[in-house]
């Protein structure tokens, strides 16, 4: 079939297998040239199909020849209906990995559930014996608690007061003011339940009880801080409470892994266009200005550049520097004083009229379409493609 983008607000309902494949192959090429010395060998990535998790899987596999198991929640294709992009990404990754002699298998389902945890552990036991790295890169709007069956919905709201500032609709380029009412205590609780550290801890507990964690095992989960501009709606909002919880969980996990000399980290990553971040108000305007400034300075990175740097310059480097709160920082370039001063200056000037010049709206839009395999360089979109693609290592 011929597949075209069909957007509804900040989502795209279609995705392109060839474009997704090209994105994956580009990331593989990037990492192949940057091997990770003493990198991981047997890796589980939760949230492995898109964004930072996909980049983590590719970096482990192609940076240090690691066997990878990817867990994710993606929609398979049906006749005439393309799959979700993470499906095609995983299909492309596993096909290439198998060609290159790398172990790569995957599990598609709700990673919050006990069933998916048990299935993953069985696969580790039968195929790998143990893992030495777990990357936790889940981003989800909902979670059903595996023990109580309660369904939690996360929300992106400020706490304590109404937040009012500008945002951009990147499809139309319109800059307009939005107001978001503060979240309730219930909203905070629900958001922490979805995006906090409880499920990460549950994964570690289950893996540890099953005896599948190696000596010196490491685990890393991803967090975000961002500038004062987005603080009220992000870091000091409901999602920020969840990130506080996630960060605190790292210390608990490290304590629980003393016997095997295990270590849990949180890495604070840069703001990037992903399916998760395009849903957050104000962030698209911030990202379009940030991209402009960082590209001008020659320090712009995407997911793969970020994660390759995380592995090579942080997690598997000789000396791992942490911030005052014990976190890994790969948002260091985003947060540089000179970068933030420029973004703040541009923020004050941003209107529908000025944004095309002062911001990187084009870059934002391209990245957004790329997430779904569209507008990818070198792909012929007029060519008929088969939407019914299998993931070769899917269990
Ligand atoms: P993403 O939307 O690209 O990836 C989410 C992944 O989670 C996908 O693989 C998806 O299949 C999987 N997933 C969702 N629900 C699932 C479920 N119930 N069971 C199994 N898998 C499920 O998101 P992104 O942006 O890569 O986010 C990953 C982490 O990085 C999140 O913790 C996010 O907060 C964090 N982060 C994101 C930043 C950004 O700007 N995008 C910046 C810093 C941190
Ligand atoms: Na991810």
Regarding quaternary structure, how should these chains be classified?
single chain
The Cα radius of gyration reads: 20 Å
Q: Distance between termini?
A: 27 Å
Q: Categorize the overall geometry.
A: globular
- Attached small molecules: 1,4-dihydronicotinamide adenine dinucleotide, sodium ion
- Helix share bin: 40-55%
H-E order: EEHEHEHEHEEEEEHHEHHEHHEHHH
Sheet/helix structural class: alpha/beta
Largest sheet: 7 strands, parallel
Record field, number of beta strands: 13
Count the helices. How many? 13
Query: In percent terms, what proportion of residues is strand?
Result: 15-25%
Low-pLDDT runs of 5+ residues are: none
State mean pLDDT (0 to 100 scale): 97
Strand order of the largest sheet: 5-4-3-6-11-12-13
What secondary-structure arrangement, pairings included, does this model have?
Layout: E1 7-8, E2 11-12, H1 17-32, E3 42-46, H2 51-64, E4 67-72, H3 85-99, E5 104-108, H4 114-128, E6 131-136, E7 142-144, E8 151-153, E9 163-169, E10 174-180, H5 185-195, H6 198-209, E11 213-223, H7 228-231, H8 238-256, E12 263-268, H9 283-296, H10 303-315, E13 328-329, H11 337-349, H12 355-358, H13 361-371
Parallel strand pairs: 3-4, 3-6, 4-5, 6-11, 11-12, 12-13
Antiparallel strand pairs: 1-2, 7-8, 9-10
Helix pairs in contact: 1-2, 1-3, 2-3, 2-10, 5-8, 6-8, 9-11, 9-13
Residues 47-53, 71-74, 86, 110-112, 137-140, 222-224, 269, 271-272, 274-277 line the site of 1,4-dihydronicotinamide adenine dinucleotide.
């Amino acid at each position: 079939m011929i597949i075209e983008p069909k957007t509804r607000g900040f989502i795209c309902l279609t995705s392109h297998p060839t474009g997704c494949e090209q994105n994956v192959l580009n990331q593989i090429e990037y990492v192949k040239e940057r091997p990770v010395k003493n990198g991981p060998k047997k890796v589980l990535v939760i949230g492995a199909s898109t964004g930072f998790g996909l980049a983590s899987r590719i970096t482990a596999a192609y940076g240090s020849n690691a066997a990878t198991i990817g867990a994710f929640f993606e929609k398979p294709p049906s006749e005439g209906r393309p799959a979700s992009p993470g499906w095609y990404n995983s299909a492309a990754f596993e096909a290439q990995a198998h060609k290159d002699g790398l172990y790569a298998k995957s599990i598609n389902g709700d990673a919050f559930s006990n069933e998916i945890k048990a299935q993953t552990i069985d696969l580790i036991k039968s195929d790998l014996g143990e893992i030495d790295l777990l990357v936790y890169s889940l981003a989800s709007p909902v979670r059903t608690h595996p023990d109580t069956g309660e369904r939690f919905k996360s929300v992106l709201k400020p706490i304590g007061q109404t937040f009012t500032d500008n945002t951009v609709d990147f499809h139309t380029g319109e800059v307009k003011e939005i107001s978001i009412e503060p979240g309730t205590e219930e909203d905070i609780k629900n958001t922490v339940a979805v995006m906090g550290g409880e499920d990460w801890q549950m994964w570690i507990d289950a893996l540890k009880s099953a005896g599948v964690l190696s000596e010196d095992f490491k685990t890393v989960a991803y967090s975000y801080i961002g500038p004062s501009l987005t603080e009220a709606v992000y870091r000091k909002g409901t999602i920020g409470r969840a990130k506080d919880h996630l960060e605190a969980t790292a210390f608990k996990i490290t304590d629980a892994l003393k016997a095997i000399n295990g270590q849990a980290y949180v890495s604070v990553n840069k703001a990037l266009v992903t399916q998760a971040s395009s849903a957050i108000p104000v962030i698209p305007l911030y990202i379009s200005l940030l991209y402009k400034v960082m590209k001008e300075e020659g320090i712009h990175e995407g997911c793969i550049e970020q994660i390759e740097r995380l592995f090579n310059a942080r997690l598997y480097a000789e000396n791992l520097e942490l911030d005052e709160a014990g976190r890994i920082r790969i948002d260091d370039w985003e947060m540089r004083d000179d970068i933030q001063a420029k973004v703040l200056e541009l923020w004050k000037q941003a209107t529908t009229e000025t944004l095309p010049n002062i911001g990187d709206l084009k870059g934002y839009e391209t990245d957004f379409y790329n997430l779904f395999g569209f507008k990818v360089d070198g792909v012929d979109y007029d060519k008929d493609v088969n939407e019914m693609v299998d993931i070769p290592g899917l269990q």
